[in-house]
Amino acid sequence: MEGLMLRLSAVLYILVASVLGGVAVIALLSMNMMEGWKIAAAFGAGCVVAIPVAAVLGRKMYNAMKTPSATA
């Protein structure tokens, strides 16, 4: 079942990386830093930061799916 958590984290990574990378690029552009290498570096940094974020979210969602619901 740990493979399920890895797959869940991989899907979450796609979403989280695009959001965090986009936020970093928008923050950079709002400071009038228009150089291409800075934009690429900001997006790359957002993608790197997204790795542990997706792992934590995947673990929390996986654990929530394993435990029985109290309302069911």
What does it look like?
Helix 1 (2-30) packs antiparallel against helix 2 (36-66). This protein has one domain (10-64). Helix content is 83%, strand content 0%. The longest helix has 31 residues, at 36-66. It is mostly helical. It has helices at residues 2-30, 36-66. This is CTP synthetase. It comes from Ciceribacter naphthalenivorans. Keywords: Membrane, Transmembrane, Transmembrane helix.
Task: Please render the helix and strand layout as text.
Layout: H1 2-30, H2 36-66
Notable characteristics:
72 residues; mainly alpha; 2 helices; elongated
What is the H/E string?
HH
- Note the beta-strand portion: under 5%
Question: Which oligomerization state do the chains in this entry correspond to?
Answer: single chain
Radius of gyration from CA coordinates? 16 Å
Residue share in helices? over 70%
Structural class: mainly alpha
Q: Profile the largest sheet.
A: none
Q: What distance lies between the first and last C-alpha atoms, to the nearest angstrom?
A: 23 Å
Number of domains: 1
Principal-axes shape call: elongated
The stretches of 5 or more residues where confidence is low (pLDDT under 50) are: none
Number of helices: 2
Number of beta strands: 0
- Please tell me the overall pLDDT: 93
